[in-house]
Amino acid sequence: MGVGFAKLISRKALLGITGVCLLLASALFQPVKAQEQNAPFQQDFWEKYVRPFVDGDRQELDTLIHFPLEGDWGYIMKLEKDPPEWNKEDFYSNYSLLFNERIKEIILKKGYDEVHIHDWKNGPQEVVYSIGWHDYGFESQILLRYRKVDHKWLLTQIQGAG
User: Fold this and answer.
1) Quick one: which H or E segment has residue 147?
2) Which among 5, 10, 22, 33 would be 20 to 30 A from 133, CA to CA?
3) Model-level pTM?
4) Quick one: how far is CA 143 from the chain centroid?
């Protein structure tokens, strides 16, 4: 009494399903192609806008950060004031609490692979650098968010998670 699967599905339906599967497969592999195409931008971006945080040269960092800097950075630096009061001096005075040796090592190890470009079709609108690690079974992350300000890429937000 059982009817085979092949008898239940018409040839047209089978071709349609195959076509949908092929479309899905090509869509899944599209980001890999886009990532490869963006690699020169990612490498250049990492060298110019992320790598300097490892060195910590204040003069260079001043050209890369937009103040007032948004995000969670003051909490990460354990500032004891309200976010609207966080300022440039707070950032530099507590720089090593955020960009400690472990975070610097992660940045160097991950390199440009963690440079994520948003809205590439219209030219990059935002670039996010992800610094992630695991502690005691928990995942933590710091996101450096860059946007163009007066036609120049600047760090505009630091977010923490975990």
Assistant:
1) strand 138-149
2) 33
3) 0.75
4) 6
